[in-house]
Amino acid sequence: MKRVLTIVAALIVLLLLGGGWMFANSPDVLNQQLVRAIQDKQSAAQLEVLLSHGANPNYTYSASKQEPSSLEKINSALSGVETARPGFGTTLLALACTQANDAAIDALLKHGANPNLEESTEVPLWIAVQSENLSLVKRLLDHGADPDRKLREYNNMTARQLAEETKKPELIALFKKASPPK
Predict the structure, then answer these.
(1) Domain 32-67+86-178, CATH homologous superfamily name and number
(2) What is the pTM of this model?
(3) 8 A C-beta contact, residue 134 and residue 178
């Protein structure tokens, strides 16, 4: 208990002496700022700044609990471990695809966003196919999106099969160019 009180006292002193930068520059705070920047459709330059300063392009978030608690922030700062909740939520790429936010999609892909993350409750390629957004489907396939990933939520259907169901020749052609079915 004494150790905990010492740590808390040290943190309070740090904050009072201007140590707030410790939280402002933590990866988790940058990730939360990136979530808000995408939601608010901020400029590509603003997204680029956050990503180049350490925001994680593969961060998953939960809309019901976007902001970590103060205790989570302190634990994150002390341990150096992000408070992201893998396996729970939506990836930033899925969020950007849902919004058809081209600036965010491009910035995230440029910084290594994985279009195939298993942790996401939404799959970017599915979002693109459902919205019949040809340019987005092409960009995601070009960046390695798996056209044959089965989704339990859709009776193990793949994005390729969903594209075929649309009966849109241009959409189907993108999947034929991407790779043969598995």
Answers:
(1) Ankyrin repeat-containing domain (1.25.40.20)
(2) 0.73
(3) no
